[in-house]
Structures are given as structure tokens and as C-alpha cells.
Amino acid sequence: MRILKTILGCLTFLVLSLQLSAQATTKPAPPPPPNYYFVDYMKATPGHAGDYVRLERGVWKDIHKARIKKGGSETAWYFLEMRMPSGASTEYDYVTVTVVSGWGGIDSLYNSWGGVFGGLTKEQLKHVDSTEMFRTLVRTEIYTDVDAIFKNPPGSVPPPKFWFFNYMDVPDGKWDDYVKMEKEIARPMHQEQCKNGHRAGWGLYSLAFPSGAEMKYEAVTIDFFDKWSDVAADDWMAMFKKVHPTKKIDDVNKTIEAARTLGRQEVRVLLDYAQ
Questions:
Q1: Which pLDDT tens digit goes with each residue over 206-229?
Q2: pTM here?
Q3: Under a CB-based contact definition with an 8 Å cutoff, are residues 139 and 32 in contact?
């Protein structure tokens, strides 16, 4: 019996040793590559907004779906209409967001259009060629992830309908202070709203291109809502006291204002998507 116990003890020690050795030699999985977001700002040709919307939803959406299904760099596409501000004097009326995976996805997206167009029918190419008749591409910006939270995992349910964009000007040399403010003060508030069901998500994104002194903002935050009523559903002061019970609102406001200047806000409504 003593010999059996000794053998079992040795086997147990051997198994534990092998497990510890495997844990020590197993390398942690690398983090997923960051997402990059091509944001294209579009101005519809006067009198042709309906034609443009039909073109995006009936032709370009299928093109993006095919690219995503192919498994290349593109992972999602969104088509949004400007809700506020709006009118003839606005710089753009619609926005498309094309998501690619990793730094290499930026170059891959630019270089893959030839192959996409080569697979279209003559009728499809005719519609694609008509795009310039119905809208003007005002400009393109590229953003990347900094932080985000969502009530449901992206892609698991239809995307949120209402997107509130907040463009932020960050003082020189204060980027780390700004990100810290968003993560420690703003994020917990948004997370509480996700828990109570009044918010679909929140994201913080940094502007990758273009850059330079002429740019009036370096970051954008997006507040996502499924329903318009959710936007004003919470008592913000009550929620602030719950989330930050030891903080004073005046001190927090000073911290926020020192970290960034809110340049402008826009409300956009999701018209269609592919993911």
C-alpha cells in the first residue's frame, strides 16, 4: 500500500509539473489588430438625394457585402444620413463608414477596387459609373480605435440606429490626459447606461489621417442609441452621483474642459449596413 501511495504521489507531481511547464511555455495569444475606419463625407446633388440613397443601398451595399464575405481586410460598412445639422448650407448630407482590420487593411482597401469592379456586370458598372452624378465626395478621414463599450457585441445584433458624433480638439501635449478623462469619468457613465438599457454603446476614436496644425480636432466620440427616447431617458445628475459618489460635479467639469474642447456635435441616422 505504501508503494502504491508513493507511485500515485509521484504521478501527481509529474502531472502538475507538466501542467506548470506547459503554462510557462505557452505564449499568450496576440491581441487582435486595431480597426481602422474610412469615413467618407458625401454631399447629395440637389434634387437627387433619393437617387443617391437608392444607389448606396441597391448597388454599393452589395459590393461591400461581397468584399466582407470574401474575407479580405474589409469587415463592415455603414451608411448614415445626417439628421442634425441639415439643410442646403451643410457641408455634407450623408456619411459612409468602411471598417478594415489592421494597418495593412488601409492599403489593401485602396488596392482591391480593381478586382471588385472586374467582377461586376455591365448593368452594375453602369450604376457605379453614375455615382458622381448623384453625390460629391467632400472628403475622407481615417480613424482608429481607442476605447469602446457596447450593450451587445458588435455584429451580434443589428447596429444601433442613432449615432451622436462629438468632435474633440485636444490641447497639444494633453492626449494622455484626455484619454484618461474619457476612460475614468465618461466611460463609467456610459457603461451605466448600457447596463440600464438606455444606451447601445459608446466609442472613442482617434484621427489617424489627415493630421497637422490645420486639423481642428484629433478625436471623436460616438454615443450609440437604439431608440430616440433613450437619449433623454436618464437623470444625468442622479446617475453621476451613483457612478461617481466621491466626486464633485464642478471639479469634474473643470477636468473635462481642461482635457478637450468640444468642437461640434452631429446626429446621424443609420440607413443601411453590411457586416
A1: 999 998 888 999 999 999 999 999
A2: 0.86
A3: no
